[in-house]
Amino acid sequence: MTKGFPILTPEQAAALVKHNETVGFGGFTAAGACKVIPLALAERAKAEHAAGRPFKLGVLTGASTGKSLDGALAAAEAIAWRTPYQSDPTLRKAINEGKTKFFDLHLSAVQPTVRSGVLGKVNWAIVEASRVTPEGEITLSTSVGCSNTYVRMADHVLIELNAYHPAELTGFHDLYEPADPPHRREIPIYAPTDRVGSTVIKVDPKKIAGIVHTNKPDESGGFDAPDPVTTKIGENVAKFLVDELRVGRIPASFLPLQSGVGNIANAVIGALGSSAGIPPFMMYTEVIQDSVIDLIEKGKCTFASGCSLTVSPAKLQQIYKNLEYYRSRIVLRPQEISNSPELVRRLGLITINTAIEVDLFGNVNSTHVMGKDLMNGIGGSGDFTRNAHISIYTCPSVAKKGAISTIVPFVTHLDHSEHSVQVVVTEHGIADLRGKAPHERAMAMIENCVHPEYRQLMKDYLTISNKGHVPQTLQNAFGMHQAFLQTGDMRNTKWLS
Amino acid sequence: MTKGFPILTPEQAAALVKHNETVGFGGFTAAGACKVIPLALAERAKAEHAAGRPFKLGVLTGASTGKSLDGALAAAEAIAWRTPYQSDPTLRKAINEGKTKFFDLHLSAVQPTVRSGVLGKVNWAIVEASRVTPEGEITLSTSVGCSNTYVRMADHVLIELNAYHPAELTGFHDLYEPADPPHRREIPIYAPTDRVGSTVIKVDPKKIAGIVHTNKPDESGGFDAPDPVTTKIGENVAKFLVDELRVGRIPASFLPLQSGVGNIANAVIGALGSSAGIPPFMMYTEVIQDSVIDLIEKGKCTFASGCSLTVSPAKLQQIYKNLEYYRSRIVLRPQEISNSPELVRRLGLITINTAIEVDLFGNVNSTHVMGKDLMNGIGGSGDFTRNAHISIYTCPSVAKKGAISTIVPFVTHLDHSEHSVQVVVTEHGIADLRGKAPHERAMAMIENCVHPEYRQLMKDYLTISNKGHVPQTLQNAFGMHQAFLQTGDMRNTKWLS
Questions:
Q1: How far is CA A105 from CA A91, B29, B358, B419, B445, in A?
Q2: Contacts of B253 in chain A (CB under 8 A)
Q3: Can you give the pLDDT at residue A200?
């Protein structure tokens, strides 16, 4: 099947890549991320550095990757710059210490930005595949990310052909790349089930510099089981959506759901699945997680369109044993399509994402702690929130055993503004911010979402700030954060008057 | 021509509207805004209040209006709540004093939000027209705004038939209203010149409660002539775009331009028009201002699509004297189409908007002063910035004779995040933030955009904040604003260490 292409060891593949080149890695989350060439690149970087020679790469990805990619390259100090989203502890530390340059992009904007040329040339595309034909047809594995764009634009392509994934995955991907302005047309998707592109990446075989054979599972972890807080958040989201359905603001046929990544998101989707008041629904989302697979099997989720199949190893085996069942129920798309603002608005998505912190007026911080330190990145949250039919943010009301209130007067980094955030849900309740002026929003947040231990503190903030369209006082805006930095507990906040 | 419809005085029309009802006013900016019925409503409110009876309305508009609408209703305390954008001094004061409830919406979101039902029923649509037929075909005047949606959804319609505008305006409007999800299709516009809708609003004649005859010009002011600062900003924008064209990041045929509202925007468009390096271009924008008309006459702007024709009275007469010339060069669309995220991205707009303040990392404040007081509202800036091919913000580097630096460490209200803002231009130069990490962005802003008097202060901020992915220090983040509030001059800032 790989006849005609050089078969390389990971080390031989890594040896082809030069210092200062830019690599576009396939994959999205740990699903479908490369696993052996980046490890070999990291070893090479360490050897070069030991020999006193520089070796750093520009690293483009789809989103986060596995530890063998971001983790290994960061540990080897092999990353000159990196975009977009990451979630690796070693890389995060390097970024926050200023050792690695990181700039963030909305995930739907990565492919157009690379095409625009503003990030320079893509020297290498390195992608994982489940199948390659002598004609240069590449079937990807458990995700798409930006692979189609990186392979098309790169000078050279390296492929990890991973026997862990069945070649029968051909048909699970739908690869559509829009033309750039002024020649761009509509993306002709009108329902999550629509297929509009190619099932494989077609590349000039001469561009394939080599294939590395592997047989390795995705480095995706599992999820924590829902706990009382995430369960309650999930139930509150379900309650809100059932009420919207009842009053007719969601059509009886329901609307497609998007859900963020992580334990809360996984619990929320589980709760929606258990809610008798919510009819069977489709997902048009970024990351397909474990709970979605469970709901597909129960018939509650009738179709899932995503950019990656980021499930636990056991769940993936369940899918692979029943591939023909899932073939008509799952599609994987490039991230500029899974996250397309055009499609988010056209399909009327109900979007559910997780906040690091939210302020009383509905502004959301998705990316940075205390204004400084990057957590992961904005991911697709902006793509979805801005154009949603209904945009929802979830978070537990407190963190660190109550020492941090996730609801504050002013977020320390702002990723989604009050103009785009419509509903906030914690384990305590639902703040529906639509049609409310800033003061009313603050009261809705205090009464419904803030932890009871912090409600009086927040009311006092509004009292001292009670002027202007937005009741804010700059000298107190970060008072709760300052109290935490100084005493380790936001409950020690004293407002300055 | 108005045979069959009740002809009313403004007072008779106003008498039909009841306390607590919601009115959707046509128009967008002062162009095409109603002029006599709202004045009569304001008089009625004053009389009711004098008699001890309540009289307040929910007021939906397209965007800002003229003084006879927002100004008169605000002075009469006749507005219970108001959305979206406004720019009237009396109304602004009432909002900032907490007397009038105001919530903001992205202008492209107003029509979908009203259709969703979340703002309740629209009792009345009150629109200005240049022509009405007995069959209920309404030709609008100098703008569209949300008129098509308000007229369709309202229980009753009142029309100001304004003889100041020629009936021959029929054909200047292109009214397209998308279906709501799950039945939504693409908006079939692929070039600024495409026409896809109706030239008139068609309404059941029985819904027309009456027509008021008027003959009044739009209450649009003129623009200040460009001054040395706005001229230099315009030249810098032109320089940036010429460079992008040269390196091929803008195609040789150029891309459509969007430009914000006001004196800076007017000067920028003028400067682009004078630049020999910029080829003739089209506008796909929200507000068509005076400078666009000048460029159409010079052949530099070959077509302008907008939501309103907000020009000075003299310029409007120039157009009306030459209607057939302009018929093939101007189209007016509903704001959900002029500002559509789908179309902004598809057409590849170069967007140029004005900031109140920008921070070192590229976050933009478009709406509030010192975190509290509403200036006008977000308008369409978010619609355009988020999905632009290239998003540019302009501002003078200082205000109040240098006592305020418009570039600060942390914006006091955040409307457009660093994830969406690509380029910042002041009279001092161009900060191209694309592909730059936060620390690099800050250096680009200091070296190119910050006023020389503030550069050392900003460098010192980076020195004390030099940790983390974003070099921020919460205790100093609003230090410049605090210095201004306490001493009247940001140059007195002392950083806390």
A1: 17, 34, 19, 6, 19
A2: 182
A3: 98
Contact state of B182 with A255 under an 8 Å Cβ cutoff:
yes
Give the confidence band of A320 by pLDDT, cuts at 50, 70, 90.
very high
Express each pLDDT in A371-418 by its tens digit.
999 999 999 999 999 999 999 999 999 999 999 999 999 999 999 999
* The pair of three-digit structure tokens given for residue A106, joined into one six-digit string: 């909305």
- Record the tokens describing residue B363, joined without a space: 């976050």
Could you write out the DSSP letters of every residue in B98-133? TSSEE----GGGHHHHHHHTTT----EEEEEEEEE-
CATH no. for residue A350? 3.40.1080.10
Residues 6+ apart with CB under 8 A from B305: B192, B193, B256, B282, B283, B284, B285, B330, B331, B333, B338
- What residues contact residue A225 under an 8 Å CB cut-off, 6+ apart? none
Beta-bridge partners for B102: B82
Assess whether B273 and B416 both reside in one domain.
yes
| Dist. CA A193–CA A200, nearest whole Å | 18
Name which of B221, B216, B218, B207 is nearest B161 in CA terms: B216
Q: Across the interface, do B469 and A386 touch by the CB < 8 Å criterion?
A: no
**Euclidean distance between CA atoms A83 and A125, whole angstroms:** 15
- Same domain for B99 and B190, yes or no, is yes
CA distances to A457, A460, B37, B160 from B475, rounded to whole Å, are 20, 21, 51, 54
Does A4 map to a domain? no
Beta partners for residue A334, in sequence order: A145
Quick check: A247 and A434 in contact, CB under 8 A? no
CA B93 distance to own-chain centroid: 19
Examine the domain organization and report whether B259 and B367 are in the same domain: yes
For residue A342, tell me if it sits in a domain. Answer: yes
Extract the residue ranges of chain B whose pLDDT is less than 50: 1
Mean pLDDT to the nearest integer, A214-238? 91
CA gap B169, B189 in Å, rounded:
22
Kindly state whether residues B327 and B434 are assigned to the same domain.
Answer: yes
State what percent of residues in chain A have pLDDT above 90: 95
Q: Are both A199 and A327 inside the same structural domain?
A: no
Please tell me which residue of chain A has the smallest CA distance to B178: A346
Domain of residue B40 covers 10-214
Is-contact A464 A473, C-beta < 8 A?
Answer: yes
Query: What does the pLDDT look like over B114-165, one tens digit per residue?
Result: 999 999 999 999 999 999 999 999 999 999 999 999 999 999 999 999 999 9
DSSP H or E run through B268: helix B263-274
What's the structural domain count of chain B? Answer: 2
Tell me if chain A has a CB within 8 Å of the CB of B414: yes
Q: Are B197 and B244 contained in the same domain?
A: no
Interface test with B, best of A92, A469, A476 (most B CBs within 10 A): A469
> Does A219 map to a domain?
no
B263-274 helix and B228-246 helix, angle to the nearest 10 degrees: 50
Sign of the torsion formed by the C-alpha atoms of A17, A19, A22 and A27: positive
Contact A341, A384 (CB under 8 A): no
Instruction: Report d(CA B224, CA B135) in Å as an integer.
Output: 43
- Point out the domain boundary residue: A168, A190, A214: A214
Token pair 């020009």: residue: B311
| Cα–Cα distance for residue pair B351/B147, rounded to 1 Å | 25
Return all residues near B435 (Cβ < 8 A) that are at least 6 apart.
Answer: A81, A83, A103, A118, A119
Distance from CA of A459 to the nearest CA of B (A): 17
pLDDT value for B76:
98
Measured in angstroms, the CA of B199 and the nearest CA of chain A are apart by: 24
**Residue A222 pLDDT class (50, 70, 90 cuts):** confident
Residues B342 and B479 in one domain: yes
Q: Which two tokens stand for residue A60?
A: 């483009």
A282 and A258 in contact (C-beta within 8 Å)?
no
The residues facing B328 across adjacent strands are none
Give residue A295's identity as a one-letter amino acid code: L
Supply the pLDDT for residue B377.
96
